[in-house]
Automatic annotation (TrEMBL):
Composition skew (Low complexity), residue ranges: 64-74
Domain of life: Bacteria
Name of protein: SCP-like extracellular
PANTHER family reported for this sequence: SCP DOMAIN-CONTAINING PROTEIN
Short name of one Pfam family: CAP
Record-annotated SCP domain positions: 104-211
SUPFAM superfamilies reported in the protein's UniProt record: PR-1-like
Disordered: annotated segments: 37-74
InterPro entries per record: CAP_dom, CAP_sf
Organism: Roseiflexus castenholzii (strain DSM 13941 / HLO8)
């Protein structure tokens, strides 16, 4: 008689301050040339910065249960082990300030969104360092390296095609600036907050004139886990969040990438107690993400409570979400 052992992995995202502050951080891997980090006071000031297009997955995930053993006469074993991942995001507030290092900052944003934290992969870090160096040295913000240019490499090309890309002109940029820039961009944010991806890679490089960064968000993606995740849609800024930038900061709701678009029937955006804020709403998101983006027509007022309402349907089921967040100075 075949005995099936089902192992259930419970992933608990806790918001305890001590846990978040002590979360293990892998060091930023460097290539043959060490990265040069700009220091305030002895480097040129910041100029402009720019983002590349968000990366796009190649193919939808394969249904392992449907395709396992296809075309073979597999012999069952006495004990079959399968793993089911169950996500139970928990948020405790107040959360600590966002750290300056890339992994701490990414996980700070993910904690605010109520999604599981990520770890760093040394190989992916090195790939993204090589791509960041390529972009900065060649002044080429790209997802496809030119192999004839200096510092092009197969490792860097992996990050180029699987990651968010960022460049800043001037010498005073930091790792945190790339992360913040991606969070202000709808398509990049949705990868950075994708709840079922467990591991990222990051690289940062500056030559004093230009800085560049890459964040590999797709190499370790686990789209097969999307159906088990109970926290869709991921809303950002999240309910009760504080310190949201008083800018034209996008509001996003996110569903699984390889699924259906939501249908929006109504939206409302107010600065309480009752100031109506003009905005645009779209479900046509970058690189075929599935979700809703609400963009205010003007910057949010500082130190204000913002209330959002979105109604519509997803896969034929009606939804209505109303929540509030607070802006900073």
């Amino acid at each position: 008689m075949i005995r099936c052992l089902h192992a259930i992995t419970i992933i608990l995202l806790t918001g305890f301050i001590l846990l978040l502050s002590s979360f293990a951080r892998a060091p930023l891997a460097r290539g043959a040339d060490s990265a040069v980090f700009a220091q305030p006071g002895n480097q040129p000031g910041r100029g402009t910065s720019a983002l590349g297009d968000p990366p796009q997955p190649d193919t939808p995930p394969v249904d392992a249960a449907t395709n396992a053993g296809a075309g073979t006469n597999a012999t069952p074993t006495e004990a079959v082990q399968s793993a089911v991942t169950v996500f139970l995001p928990l948020i405790a507030r107040p959360l600590p300030p966002l750290p300056d290092d890339w992994l701490g900052r990414v996980n700070g944003y993910r904690a605010r969104a109520g999604v599981p934290l990520v770890s760093a992969d040394v190989t992916l870090n090195n790939n993204c360092f090589e791509h960041a160096r390529y972009m900065a040295e060649n002044n080429d913000l790209t997802h496809n390296q030119n192999p004839s240019l200096p510092y092009a490499s197969p490792a860097g090309q992996i990050c180029a095609q699987k990651g968010n890309a960022w460049m800043g002109w001037g010498g005073a940029w930091r790792q945190r600036d790339a992360i913040d820039g991606w969070m202000e961009s709808v398509g990049h944010r949705l990868w950075l907050l994708y709840p079922t991806t467990p591991t990222f890679g990051f690289g940062f490089y500056s030559n004093g004139q230009r800085s560049a960064a890459g964040l590999d968000v797709l190499s370790r993606a686990r789209f097969d886990d999307d159906a088990a995740y109970a926290g869709w849609p991921v809303r950002y800024p999240a309910p009760g969040q504080q310190g949201v930038p008083a800018t034209r900061y996008p509001i996003t709701l996110q569903w699984p990438y390889f699924d259906q678009k939501p249908v929006v029937t109504g939206t409302s955006l107010r600065a309480l107690p009752g100031t109506v804020l003009g905005h645009t709403t779209t479900t046509d998101l970058p690189v075929n993400h599935k979700g809703v983006a609400i963009i205010p027509n003007q910057a949010f007022p500082p130190n204000a409570t913002i209330e959002v309402t979105v109604t519509g349907s997803y896969k034929g089921q009606p939804f209505s979400f109303t929540w509030q967040f607070q802006t900073g100075n």
